[in-house]
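Human: Not sure, check this?
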Amino acid sequence: MFKDTFSENPSDVMASLASNVLGSDSKTEITNYVEPAFVSDSPIYTIQSQCRPDSSFVVPVKLASINISLVIRCLHGLNLWRKSSSEINDELYRGFRKGNSKRESNEILAAYDFLNSDLDKFNVSIWYNSTYKNDTGNVPIGLLRVPRSINLASNAYLRSLLGPGTQILLDFVNVIFIVVSSLL
């Protein structure tokens, strides 16, 4: 599911960002007009199967009329297997802010179950940690970065059917559309 390197196209930086598995530890907002990760002091993480030493670099991005320098840092992604959906639920719950005695979040990008998929149909269950949704009842609910997880799952399925060069890219318009439509 994860690439071995960050692929960058200097002539189309946004497409480069969309073709990589990215993450952030910046908090989301209640709107996604500008992704908070782009304007925070936190790095953007590229999740890869292996990270080279000193694998941080800077990517220049222009958002509207503002020039931003994004710090990209490699984060080693692990593929873990679990025997059942109940094991996945238990592990995800222990990663919730209130699911353990230390009240710490265990960041699991997502869990996928492709068991009901085959050559004729794509049927996947996706689990994710929604701690940062901040659904406390006291503040507006924050957005989650789930569309990339969906994109990761669909690309893995397509690659298994059609080969390693196959992929679907969600641009920022589609990501916003998916987030907005899921709230309706």
Notes: The CA atoms of residues 56 and 73 lie 4 Å apart. DSSP finds five helices and six strands in the chain.
